Amino acid sequence: MTLYLNLTLTELTARINDAQTGEILGEIKAGHKSVRELFFTRIPLDALALERAIEWIEDRIQEARLTLPEGSQLSTSDPDIQVLKQLANIEESGAALHVDAVEQMFSRLVLQAFGQSPTTQNVSDSTRVFATVVLMREILHHLRFERIYIKQAAKS
Questions:
Q1: SS in 3 state form for the chain?
Q2: Residue 89 belongs to a domain with what CATH number?
Q3: Domain assignment of residue 110, yes or no
Q4: Per-residue pLDDT for 154 more than 80?
């Protein structure tokens, strides 16, 4: 049986919960604000800061000691991840953001950090977007998800 999980990014955490019951299955103590304030404090992005951010996020993922059932599917309606979907030129509602698309965005960030990216190829000049790309890359990689399904945000 497939377990459906939901990912929510906050300023200080990435939380994974059972999409059906709402039960919190784990929390990674790394969020877009903490990554930005610790590592991405200036534009252009600094290559050393990028490497340190990756190591720090990896450490937070290991500290969370998440054990998720194999075959689980990850989804989100998080607005920060919605932005990544747009950057990846994915337009369909309910579409998946594949790990390869996140890796491509990350590769563009690396080139940007080394000053080797044409301006038209830059991911963004937003440190929040930088942080979200790196968080998603590490979460998908270390928790072994091939994709994250992007749902429309609930309307208030």
A1: CCCEEEEEECCCCEEEEECCCCCEEEEECCCHHHHHHHCCCCCCCCHHHHHHHHHHHHHHHHHHCCCCCCCCEEEECCHHHHHHHHHCCCCCCCCEEEHHHHHHHHHHHHHHHCCCCCHHHCCCCCHHHHHHHHHHHHHHHHCCCCEEEECCCCCC
A2: 3.30.420.150
A3: yes
A4: no
